Sequence to fold (533 residues):
Amino acid sequence: MKKDWYRNAIFYELNVRAFRDSNGDGKGDIPGVIEKLDYLKDLGVDCLWLLPMYPSPLKDDGYDIADFMHIHPDFGTVEDFKHLMDEAHKRDMYVVADLVLNHTSDQHYWFQAALKDPTSPYKDYYVWSKTGKEYGDTRIIFLDTEPSNWSFCPEVGEFYWHRFYASQPDLNYDNPAVQEEMLNTMRYWASLGLDGFRADAVPYLFEREGTICENLPETHQYLKKVRRVLDAEFPGRILLAEANQWPDDVREYFGDGDEFNMAFHFPLMPRIFMAMKKGDPTPIRWALDKTPAIPDGCQWCTFLRNHDELTLEMVTPEERDYMWQQYAPDPKMKLNLGIRRRLAPLMDNNIEKMKQANAILFSLPGTPIIYYGDEIGMGDNIDLFDRNGVRTPMQWAADLPNAGFSEASQTYAPVINIAPYSPRHVNVAGQQNDPSSFLNFMKHLVKLRKERPYLAESSIQFLDTTSPATLCVVREAEGQRMIALHNLGDSNAYVTFRADLGFSPKIELLTGTPVNPGLKTIRLAPHQSAWLE
Ligand code: GLC
Fold:
């Protein structure tokens, strides 16, 4: 392991169920992921993030875990998992997976034991109430499906607490046994070779009356313990926080460098979409201006899309309405406080916009994550329930059954089959053979980024230009400098720098074209980006 490898890396998020089905049962599996590692390596991926692949009734796509210590039979075996670790490591790739600390499935034997026998020690693994009235200041996250964070359990005659679906009872972190069980879960997967964990829903571990039950000091204390155990027993493994919070609250999850190594940058993400729609860099500049400094050895994880709805929790109500109006014209596209669509449809399937969104992301500090399928511009299916529409089978080829995902007659979810997103239009093989494809652009972008480790660092400057629609950032390190220009508008931009640049760029990196010496004004087409070095 290279020290701090995650600080300058390309992450790739994938759903085992959706990637490649190796045994023809219609569901993706771990051997299927192994088959495709060379594809990921070729794209330039350094680290895979695997969505939960543990036994589960799959009511929340595996985030409802029924057994922390096994692999879901649909996805393979623990042996397959070890094999995946070996194969990834052979290719110098890292693998992280979800550690779901906050809750279990109601099918977990702990919860089942509590139902069968209320005197069982497992009852105290969960959070109960006789009235279902406590913690009334706590928001509901799955607003479209859950009326309350309490559900009544007839077997026990009490209410149990859940921040997500009612089928996901929250664990009781005031119980030391729960704390220890979850440390053991982490130890187990780390001992099988996992390089780290994407820790799910971490703000919600503890509950305290009179608070919003998020980001509590007790929660941070426990998370620091998780980190201490990981560092002591598995040095070099990493923790990545899913804390969908405002920058100052997320900052706390890095502690003094003794809590998380990484955290997702939730406030930045929607503002990239907002800026591109408004033709105005202000939202992106705002998010970066508000981004606090983080301790040495820590890093932001930046992203455009993931397996959930494009969350609009970290914007103002006015900004949220704007985003919904612009990006969710059909009410079916809305979900909870977000938008359940993939990148390409959000970008009107316009390749220039898709390139720009990524060229922005990759020109900013942090470690970027690519969501599977977005590197080829896959579409979504809003007729599927909840977030399933952005989790459809990966499209490998035009001319194979189920786009090369599976040989089965039926797959876990239908392959997208409506133009312009059907496999005939969007697939890996076709794009690999086309030098001007989006996939080849992404490969190029990944390569440019990896050759310039300083782009991952936190230092960034904004330059004012004559074009109000253009985001202009300067990234530099000793002896190296790049200016990234992004015309966010729908018309041509003529960009003249307000101040002397003090250096003369030689090459535009995205297209590989030389830059005229003494360049003063640059013309950018609508949604064109330029990386001048
Ligand atoms: C996280 C996951 C989401 C899941 C939820 C509950 O937010 O990203 O997919 O539904 O946690 O586990």
